[in-house]
Amino acid sequence: MYIEDPAFTIPTGKPAPVDPQIAEFMRLMAKDASQYPRRDTIAIEEGRANAEKVRLPWAQGGPAMARTVEHRVGTRYGTHLRVRVHYPRERKLTGALVYIHGGGFVLFSIDTHDRIMREYAERAGVVVIGMDYTRAPDAKFPQPLEECIDVFRWVHDNAAMLDVDPAQLFLGGDSAGANMTMGACLTLRDAGLQLVKGVVLNYGGFGSNLFRNSVVRYGSGEYGLSLHMMIWFRGMHMARGEDFINPRADILRADLRGLPPAFLVVTECDPLHDDSVELERKMREAGVEVQSKVYPGTVHSFLEAVSIADIAGVAFDDTARWLHAQAQAQREA
Questions:
Q1: Catalytic residue among 71, 86, 101, 300
Q2: How far is the C-alpha of 153 from the C-alpha of 133, rounded, in Å?
């Protein structure tokens, strides 16, 4: 959409090799997706239904929970959102991780991301709370973001009923969910509410600048997420041209001072790779405590491959350790 990065150059040389187990995940996902028309050529509801079918096998299996409870939570928009609470068999943290699923603001649900949430619950020993939000184009920016904020505040206000510690609430998400995680933190900070104790950012899209080296190198569609789909998602999500550069959506334009500590899970073979790299740099410059790790040979959405890809398990365990470290630091503060 615009070029503002003086470091932008057309990359040369071979892209990084994909992890063999991740390559198999991509092959199987592409095989299942090939049964259906391209998402932007059919009705949005049909595209969503097809996406749920393709993702379903990867959301099954994995850790069993002590219990899972669902709620309906009202928002300022009059919507009543499905909220799912996973309680692990062994709780090691008293709080909760509130998780926002990805899908370009258009697709997916807490069903497609159910295993991701259960993996976090089991590995970290923490209650994980996932939410459905009204997806684009049914709702344009900022409605999905503000619905997520309303759910997070509901969790905080109803912590006793949910059996979680309101003083130990983490917020996280993947892709579009990571974007809205940051938008929520900025909004809460500006309201003077220090409710989020740490954020988990999984391969997020944090800016509107599509002229990036990682987009050129990995945006052809061979690595899952394509530049074409990124443009389609953004067009669905945004109502006005000015929304593309709103700091609550284009996070890389925001003043990042005063945000909670963050852990970035960065994919190597992903058009969004450079967004995470730049976000980490800007957070450090703003004095935010931030850690990141690049997972070699991974592609967008690789956490969903945990059933067959060892590196996805590594990423879950890394995040679980970071959550515990944050909890310990808060206890000692």
A1: 300
A2: 14
Tell me if residue 300 is catalytic. yes
Give the number of other Cβ atoms within 10 Å of residue 278's Cβ: 18
| Residue 304 token pair | 């969903």
Q: How confident is the model at residue 7 (pLDDT cuts 50, 70, 90)?
A: low
CB atoms inside a 10 Å sphere around CB 64: 10
Compute CA 170 distance to the chain's CA centroid, rounded to the nearest angstrom.
Answer: 13
Kindly tell me the burial class for residue 61, based on how many C-beta atoms sit within 10 Å of its own C-beta (0-12, 13-18, 19 or more).
exposed
Which of 295, 263, 296, 303 is CA-nearest to residue 279? 263
The answer to whether the beta carbons of residues 246 and 225 sit under 8 Å apart is no
Residues listed for the chain: 333
Active site includes 19?
A: no
pTM (two decimals): 0.96
| Exposed / middle / buried, residue 78 (Cβ in 10 Å: 0-12, 13-18, 19+) | exposed
Looking at residue 226, the DSSP 8-state letter turns out to be: B
Catalytic residue among 150, 174, 270, 274: 270
175: annotated active-site residue: yes
Catalytic residue among 19, 71, 175, 273: 175
* Residues in Cβ contact with 231 at an 8 Å cutoff, skipping those fewer than 6 apart: 210
Side chain identity at residue 24, one-letter code: E
Contact between 170 and 97 under an 8 Å Cβ cutoff? The reply is yes
pLDDT in tens, 22-62: 999 999 999 999 999 999 999 999 999 999 999 999 999 99
Instruction: Please confirm whether the linkage preceding 142 is cis (ω < 30° from 0).
Output: yes
Alpha-carbon distance of 126 to 323, in angstroms, equals 9
